[in-house]
Amino acid sequence: MQPAVINIFEKAAKKAGRILIRDFGEIENLQIESKSVGDFVTNADLKVEKSILETLKYFYPNYTYITEESGIIKGDENTIVIDPIDGTSNFIHGIPHVGIIIAKMTNDEITDGIIYNPILNEFFWTSKGKGSWCNDRRLRVSNRSNLSDCLIGTGLPFGERIYKNYLSEIDEILKTTAGIRRFGSAGLDLAYVAAGKLDGFWEADLNLWDLSTGTLLVKEAGGRISKINGEDWNIDCREILASNSNIHIDLSEKLSLL
Ligand code: 2AM
Ligand code: CA
Q: Could you identify the atom of ligand 1 that is nearest to the CA of residue 210?
């Protein structure tokens, strides 16, 4: 049974998802405004976020909202984090790997969240103690324990996000695993770890809205999250290492060798 907060998030995401689908179909007509190198904000991001906020504010008028496009809307201690389109570059290029992310946080802890890909009709949800789900299916991380069998997701940096060790990280992971995937939505990548499709995932230089729901999805599906060096993750961390638990220490060691 979905908790009430998830029902409300589902309502908001599915309504906004219709706007996203319509604009995805008309991608060529979108006016694109440049935010910074390689990062675009589209009309769709703004429209989708506006629609989500409209629905959520009806049910939770006094909450605090942290959003990618509208910034922070200050309210009480209950906080909702929103990413209207995670995978904006995919969206702009007509690649259907995108998600609407909504998460609830209390006392700096993520307690509930959803990621909805309206194009593939995949609705991921999770609540603390209630497991992780995609549509009607309960999710469980993979059971692989040899790195050499494992498929690992990451997000390659670009533009201003380039950092010193990224090529050596990739070199180390390519040499010791079954390969790397780079899908372009950190939220869905974490959902794929929860679903057992990816065995692990790491990325640096992210924001809370990218990571919010995904971190709880992984934990509730039996996986593990941490900083890349293995230290505890918290909502102020901009990086993530997620895995099926079995390979967590191995992965962290490979990525911290550098
Ligand atoms: P977005 O699509 O909502 O922007 C892909 O590597 C991941 O990084 C996505 O989750 C993407 O979220 C995020 N991302 C893209 N550009 C970024 C930037 N300039 N700074 C931080 N995160 C970014
Ligand atoms: Ca994002």
A: 10
